[in-house]
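Dear support,

I submitted the protein below through the web form. The confirmation email said the job was done, but the results page showed an empty box. After a refresh the structure appeared. I'm attaching both so you can tell me whether what I see now is the final result or a partial one.
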Amino acid sequence: MKILTTGFLCFVSLASFAQQRGEVKIVVNPMIDSLIAKRIALNSKPTAVAAIAAKPAAAIVSQMGYRVQVFYGSDRRKVFSEQSRFQSSYPALNTYISYKEPNYYLRVGDFRTKLEAQRLMNELRPSFPTLFIFREKINAPNLDYSNDN
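What the results page shows now:
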C-alpha cells in the first residue's frame, strides 16, 4: 500500500509540473519603430561629396581619431549649458556628451589627425580654459575632393 501511495504521489507531482501550452504576447513600444526609422534616415543622408557626384549616400564610418574635450564636471545642467554655448559659437562641429561616474564629459569634433585637433584647441583656448585632446573612435568626416585636379 505504501508503494502504491508513493507511486501515485510521484505521478501526481510530475503531472503538476508538466509544461502547459500557452500564448506568447509581444508588446512593442511604437517609439522603437520610429527610432529605427530615424536611425536609418540619418545613416542614409547624402554627404557633400556624394551630393556633388550624385551617388547614393554612404553609411557613417567609424575609425580611430581625435576629439577635443572642452568641459567636464559632475553637474549635468552645466555640461548642457556649455554644449549650447559651444554650439552657438561653432555650429559646424559635432558635440558629444558622455558620462563616466561621477563626471560628464563634453568632447567636440571628429578629427583624423592630432594636428587638426591641436589647431581647434589653440583656437578655443581663450573661451574654454581646460582643453584636452583624446584619441577615441570617431565618426569619420567626409573628405573634401573639390580642390583636386
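Response: this is the final, complete result; the empty box was a page-load delay. The helical segments are 2-16, 30-43, 48-53, 76-89, 114-124.
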